[in-house]
Design a protein that fits this description.
The complex is a heterodimer of chains A (232) and B (435).
Chain A (H helix, E strand, L loop, with lengths): L4 E10 L6 E11 L4 E5 L6 H8 L7 E6 L2 E2 L5 H11 E4 L11 H6 L11 H14 L15 H13 L5 E5 L7 H13 L6 E5 L3 H5 L3 E6 L2 E4 L2 H4 L1
Parallel strand pairs in A: 3-8, 3-9, 6-7, 7-8
Antiparallel strand pairs in A: 1-2, 1-4, 4-5, 9-10
Helix pairs in contact in A: 4-5, 5-6
Chain B lengths: L1 H20 L1 H39 L6 E5 L5 H9 L5 E12 L23 E4 L2 E4 L12 E9 L10 E5 L13 E5 H9 L6 E3 L9 E7 L6 E5 H5 L4 H4 L8 E5 L4 H13 L9 E3 L2 H41 L1 H9 L4 H38 L13 H27 L5 H4 L1
Parallel strand pairs in B: 5-10, 7-9
Antiparallel strand pairs in B: 1-11, 1-12, 2-5, 2-8, 2-11, 3-4, 6-9, 7-10
Chain lengths: 232, 435
C-alpha cells in the first residue's frame, strides 16, 4: 500500500552565523494511513526541523519527499500553502490561539485561509463538528483567556482537524500541560488515526510516545527505531 | 474567479477581525489620517462650489455654456427680419437695445450716460464718433437742466432670455410672454436700476430714444442680471408699440442687435442667416459664436485647485506616515499570528491582503468620517453665512468631494499599508516552530 508520505535520504543543513550544522543527515520515514508515529530525541536533535520539512514549512537540501505518489521535494511556496491547507494539520507546543477570537473563530481560521471558500453555514457546521470531536463543542463561544490549558490545546487540535487532513503533525503538544491533561490531549490526537489520519508526534515524553504505533528516535541526524525497553 | 472571491472575502473578514481587536489603535490611526482626508474633501468641495459660483456668475452676465450667439448692427432690415424669424420661439431669443429715460420730462437724468447712480460724476452724455471727430448724441435733453430722471438701457426681448442667461429673481415677477402685449410696457429692472429708483423717486414716464411719444411703464419685478449699469427688460412687442422697428435700426439707440440660440437650434440659425442675407445684411457680417463659459473660467481655477490639492496631499502624507507607523508596529506584534496563518495554508499574498484590507478599511472609515464632517460643516456654514454670502446658501455637498475623500482614504490606506503588508508576507513560517 502506498504510504501517505515517504521521506528518503532527507538532508538538511542549517547555515547560521557559525559553521553550517547538519541537522538531518539522510532521514528515511514512511507514514501510512491510520498509523501513529512518535519521534523522540534530545533537544536540538532536529525533531522540529524534521517536522518543518514534513509540514512544508521548510525544504530539504537533499533526498526525496513523496506525498502519496507525488514528489513534493521542491514544491513552490504557492503550492506548498495549498498542500498545508488540504493535506496537513498542525498542533504546536504553544497553542497559538488568537485571544480576540472565540474558540470557534480560532478553529475557523483554518477554513478562512484563501484556499477555497465555504459559506458561513457550512463553515460553522464544520467548526462545531471539529470542536465536538475533541469534546469541547460547548466552549465554542469562549475566548482563549477563559479556557484552561488543556481546553486551549484541544481548540488547537480542532483547528488542525477541521479541514480533515490526511496527516496530523504535532510538535510537543503536551509540553505546556500537566500530566493528566497531557494524557487527554495525546489520547485525542491518537483517536484521529481511527479515521485513517496519519499522525506524527514529536515529544520528549516516553509515556506519550508509548501510546503511538511506532516510536522512532532522531539522533545524529538519522531516524532509528527506538528499542521497546527504552520506551517503557 | 471563485478563488479570488474567496481570498477577497477572507482578507476582508480577517481584516475586520483585526480592526475589532484593536479598536483604540484603529481609532488613533483614523485620527492621524482624518485631517489629511478632510483637507482633500474640503479642497475638492471648495473648488467645486467656487466653480459653480463662478460659472453661475459667468452664465449670468455672458450666457450659458454652449449657447450660440450673434451680434448684428441694427442696420437695414436686420432688426425686422430677426424679430420676425425668432418671434415666439423658445430655443432662440433676439435682444434689441434702446436708451430710455424714466422720470420728469424735459430734464437731464441724474446719471447722464446711463451709468450707476452711486458713481459720482456719472458717465456724461453719450458720444458718437466718426472720421470728423466725436459728437454728443442728442437724446432730446441737450441744454436741459438736471432733474428727477434716470437713464437706463432698455432691452427688448422676443422671448424668455432666462433660458440662456439664468437671471436670479430678486422681487416681484418675471415677464409673461404668453398673453397679449400691454400698451403700458411692463418692465423688469435689474438691481442697479432698482437701486436707482430706490434712491430717486421719479415720475412714471418713460422716454425711449427714437420715439416721439412717452409711455407709462409698469415695473413688475427686479432681477439680478450680473450687470453694473441700470437696465430694464421688456417684451419686444410691447416696446414696438412705442418704438417702431425703423427707429430701432437708427444706429443711435444702442449697441446693436443680439440673438441667442440654444445649441440645438441649428435650423433657426440657418433660416436666420438666409433671411438676413436676403434682407441685405452682408454675409461676412453674420458671425455666430459659441459661449465657452466653462473653458474661460476653468483655466482660472485650475492653478488654484492644484496649489490647494498640493497642500492637502502634504497633510494626507503626514496621516499616511501615522498609519504606516502603526501598521509596522502592529505587524511586529502579530508575527506569530501571521506565521500561524501561513502554517494553516494562508498564502503570502493573502497575508499581505489582510494587512492591506485593515489599512484600507481604516482609510475608508476615515473617509466616511471626513465626508460626514464636510457635509455637516457645509450645512452649518450655509445656515450661518448663507445670508451674507449668497453662493453659500442652499449649496449641496458636491459628490466630487465625496469621491475625492474616498479616493484619498483608499490611497492613504494603500500607501500606509503597503510596507507592513510586504513585511507580513515575508514572515518566516518556521517562527511558530521556534516559539
Amino acid at each position: 500500500m502506498t504510504p501517505l508520505l515517504r521521506l528518503s535520504g532527507i538532508t538538511k543543513t542549517l547555515k547560521g552565523q557559525q559553521e553550517p550544522r547538519t541537522i538531518l543527515a539522510g532521514v528515511d520515514l514512511a507514514v501510512h494511513s491510520g498509523e501513529s508515529v512518535a519521534i523522540l530525541g534530545r533537544s536540538g536533535s532536529g525533531k522540529s526541523t524534521l517536522l518543518s520539512v514534513i509540514g512544508l514549512f521548510d525544504r530539504p537540501d537533499g533526498g526525496e519527499y513523496l506525498l502519496g505518489d507525488r514528489d513534493i521535494t521542491r514544491v513552490p511556496e504557492r503550492k506548498a500553502a495549498a498542500l498545508r491547507s488540504a493535506e496537513f494539520g498542525f498542533v504546536f507546543q504553544r497553542f497559538f490561539l488568537l485571544k480576540h477570537l472565540t474558540a470557534a473563530q480560532n478553529v475557523a481560521m483554518a477554513l478562512v485561509n484563501g484556499q477555497g471558500w465555504l459559506p458561513r453555514r457550512k463553515r460553522r457546521a464544520k467548526v462545531l463538528a471539529a470542536l465536538e470531536r475533541v469534546g469541547i463543542g460547548h466552549l465554542a463561544k469562549h475566548k482563549p483567556p477563559r479556557l484552561s490549558g488543556g481546553e486551549q490545546q484541544r481548540v488547537a487540535i480542532a483547528r488542525a482537524l477541521v479541514r480533515e487532513p490526511r496527516i496530523l503533525l504535532a510538535d510537543e503538544p503536551t509540553g505546556a500541560l500537566d500530566t493528566e491533561t497531557g494524557n487527554l490531549v495525546v489520547e485525542a490526537l491518537r483517536a484521529t488515526t481511527d479515521r485513517g489520519c496519519g499522525l506524527v508526534l514529536v515529544t520528549h515524553d516516553r509515556h506519550h510516545a508509548a501510546k503511538m504505533g511506532r516510536v522512532l528516535t532522531l539522533s545524529d541526524g538519522l531516524l532509528r527505531p527506538t528499542p521497546e525497553r527504552v520506551v517503557v | 474567479m471563485i478563488r479570488l472571491s474567496g481570498r477577497l472575502r477572507s482578507s476582508v473578514i480577517i481584516g475586520g477581525q483585526g480592526i475589532r481587536a484593536r479598536k483604540l489603535r484603529t481609532f488613533l490611526s483614523m485620527v492621524s489620517l482624518f485631517m489629511g482626508v478632510l483637507a482633500v474633501v474640503v479642497v475638492q468641495a471648495g473648488s467645486e462650489i467656487a466653480n459653480r459660483a463662478m460659472l453661475e456668475d459667468v452664465e449670468l452676465s455672458q450666457g450659458k455654456d454652449g449657447t450660440r450667439q450673434l451680434y448684428l448692427p441694427p442696420e437695414g432690415g436686420a432688426v425686422e427680419t430677426t424679430l420676425e424669424v425668432v418671434a415666439g420661439r423658445s430655443d432662440a431669443v433676439a435682444l434689441t437695445n434702446a436708451t430710455a429715460i424714466i422720470g420728469e420730462p424735459g430734464v437731464k437724468p441724474v446719471n447722464e450716460g446711463g451709468g450707476p447712480v452711486d458713481q459720482p460724476g456719472g458717465y456724461g452724455p453719450r458720444m458718437f464718433c466718426d472720421q470728423n471727430g466725436c459728437h454728443e448724441i442728442d437724446d432730446g435733453t441737450r441744454g436741459s437742466p438736471k432733474g428727477q430722471a434716470i437713464q437706463l438701457e432698455l432691452v427688448g426681448m422676443t422671448g424668455d432670455i432666462r433660458a440662456f442667461r439664468p437671471f436670479r429673481p430678486s422681487s416681484g415677477k418675471w415677464l409673461d410672454f404668453g398673453g397679449e402685449p400691454s400698451l403700458a410696457p411692463r418692465l423688469v429692472l435689474n438691481k442697479k436700476a432698482a437701486d436707482a429708483f430706490e434712491r430717486y423717486r421719479v415720475p412714471a414716464e418713460m422716454r425711449v430714444q427714437g420715439s416721439d411719444v412717452n409711455a407709462t411703464p409698469q415695473i413688475v419685478g427686479v432681477v439680478d442680471d450680473g450687470g453694473f449699469m441700470p437696465a430694464a427688460y421688456v417684451r419686444s412687442d410691447e416696446l414696438r408699440n412705442w418704438l417702431p422697428v425703423r427707429d430701432m435700426a437708427s444706429g443711435d439707440s444702442g449697441p446693436g442687435l443680439r440673438v441667442m440660440l440654444s445649441p440645438s437650434a441649428t435650423d433657426v440659425e440657418h433660416t436666420l442667416r438666409a433671411r438676413l442675407v436676403a434682407s441685405g445684411t452682408p454675409e461676412d457680417r453674420i458671425h455666430f459664436n459659441t459661449i465657452n463659459s466653462l473653458e474661460r473660467m476653468s483655466s482660472q481655477l485650475t492653478l488654484m485647485r492644484w496649489i490647494f490639492l498640493g497642500m492637502a496631499a502634504l497633510v494626507l502624507l503626514i496621516g499616511v506616515a501615522g498609519i504606516l507607523n502603526v501598521g509596522l508596529a502592529t505587524v511586529g506584534e502579530r508575527i506569530e499570528e501571521f506565521a500561524l496563518r501561513r502554517a494553516v495554508g494562508t498564502p503570502r499574498l493573502l497575508l499581505a491582503g489582510i494587512v492591506l484590507a485593515e489599512t484600507l478599511l481604516t482609510g475608508l472609515l476615515t473617509a466616511a468620517a471626513a465626508i460626514g464632517a464636510g457635509v455637516v460643516a457645509l450645512r452649518v456654514g450655509g445656515d450661518m453665512f448663507g445670508s451674507r454670502y449668497p453662493s453659500l446658501s442652499g449649496v449641496e455637498f458636491p459628490w466630487q468631494a465625496g469621491v475625492a475623500g474616498v479616493v484619498a482614504g483608499l490611497v492613504a490606506g494603500v500607501l500606509g499599508g503597503l510596507i507592513p503588508a510586504i513585511r507580513a508576507a515575508r514572515i518566516p513560517i518556521a517562527t511558530v516552530m521556534r516559539a
